[in-house]
Design a protein that fits this description.
The protein has 132 residues and is α+β, with helices and mostly antiparallel strands. It contains four helices and six strands; from the N terminus they run βαβββαββαα. The radius of gyration is 19 Å and the shape is extended. The mean pLDDT is 90.
Length: 132
């Protein structure tokens, strides 16, 4: 019995079922998927709760469970982030580093100048942590 039909519970249940176990997944919400869900939070507006985190979804799991056969597909987001502020300003970010620098400069020239260093730091961090 797995309590919680979020993506972690579903993956756990799939592995158990694949190994021959009988599995029951219980979820209190009317939909399953947890952080991967896109839902209408305000009338007419659909939001991804935390679907951006799927970039952390292990390729091993995708392969082991043959998820592409069942319709799994990742849709690139551009823009990937939009943050509106009460004063009418906003920060929009996407896959283009120059665009991101320009957006950041609306708030801080110094941060915009340092943005490439920040991205390089994150790349080094990912390289160091990924093997773990």
């Amino acid at each position: 019995i797995i309590v919680g039909g979020g993506h972690n519970g579903l993956v756990s249940g799939a592995y158990l079922a694949k190994s021959g176990q009988k599995v029951l997944i219980l979820e209190r919400r009317p939909l399953i998927g947890g952080a991967t869900v896109t839902e209408e939070v305000f009338p007419g507006f659909r939001f991804s709760r935390c679907s951006y985190l799927n970039s952390f979804f292990s390729p091993t799991i995708i392969k082991d469970l043959d998820l592409h056969q069942y319709g799994l597909r990742f849709i690139p987001r551009n823009p990937s982030s939009f943050t509106p502020l009460h004063d009418g300003r906003y920060l929009m970010l996407g896959p283009d580093a120059s665009f991101n620098q320009s957006e950041i400069s609306k708030f801080s020239k110094k941060d915009a100048e340092n943005y490439p260093k920040y991205e390089q730091f994150l790349e080094r961090l990912v390289t160091a942590i990924s093997p773990l």
